[in-house]
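Issue 218. Parser rejects a valid record. Input:
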Amino acid sequence: MVSLTTNTLRAAAGAVLIAALGLGLSGCNEKKEETAEVIRPVKVVEIAQADTTRKLDYSGAVRARTEMNLGFRINGKIVERKVDIGQRVKPGDVLARIDATDYTLAVRRSQATLDSAEKQVQTAELARNRAQALFDKNVTSKSQLEQAELSYEQAVSSRDSAVSALTEAKNQVAYADLASDMNGIVTSINADVGQVVASGTPVVTVAVDGEKEVQVAVPEMDIAQFKVGKDVKARFWSDSALVLDGKVREVSGSADQSRTFAVRVSLPADQRVLLGMTATIEAFADNTQPFVSIPLSALAQKDGKQIVWLVDRSAGTVHSRAVKVADFADDGVRVADGLKAGDVVVAAGTQFMTENMKVKLSGAAAQQATAETKAASADIVR
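Output the parser choked on:
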């Protein structure tokens, strides 16, 4: 009976041991499955040669080199406007007219004053001639003759003043018509019929025929790159195939309220370029140090520093590297330090990267990495 019990216990213990071993082996398999290395496919970009120049693009509008803001030379109420925006004008064309009634009355008054002065000259001349005749007969004194001569000269001066006043009054009447001085096209109307304007107030703007140019606003950080005489390119939104060589003609000496500087670029004569067209001025700035460009998605942060993840193509792993960002552009980020030509950088999914993580390059990048690895192995064998 005791022997049976002992055998039974031994059998039970063996069963428990086998079960424990089975569980242990199962746990090891699960642990191996859990710790299986994950290889993540990544999208990469290879760093090209560093840029030695920086492209500057600024948009503006085509305008005439000379624009006349025409206004009346006298005060008055506008009674007629004879041109519209877009209308061509030539020298002598009347653009607008103001009420000249008061100025016409001034002409009549000046004419009357002149007539009176003419009569005074005639009277003074008769008195002088009579005094001269009496003096010649020793009837009057020398002082009376001199007084008559002075009265005559005074009358002549008054007449000359009246002539000038009449001429001025007639000019005022002529100034009631606002006329163009040169050939051009009307670009804006700043006052209309019924409006009372002061002398010099702009009423009509005329763009003078001739050279055209583009005016752009350049921020203070780039204004040093624009010097008078600098060669630039001009592209036009309405015609992508139209590209003209321009030259900086004028750079403003001070910034306006928007903290930008006005730069005017002269354009060669071309009938396809019309006033008001949108143009983009392209220029290149020399960098003080070369920059390399990367996509914005390739930039990451680690421990408060800006980094990128570099791919070691031979080992298939990634490593972080700190970089110094120069500035941001439309096509990505310009890096001043930390990268060189030929480096392979993770271009997307940087938030999933960890140090020494195994990665798999996709597409052409993977083929290039394989080719480089084979080439390196061949060199070792040789």
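Fixed in the parser; the record now loads. The radius of gyration is 47 Å.
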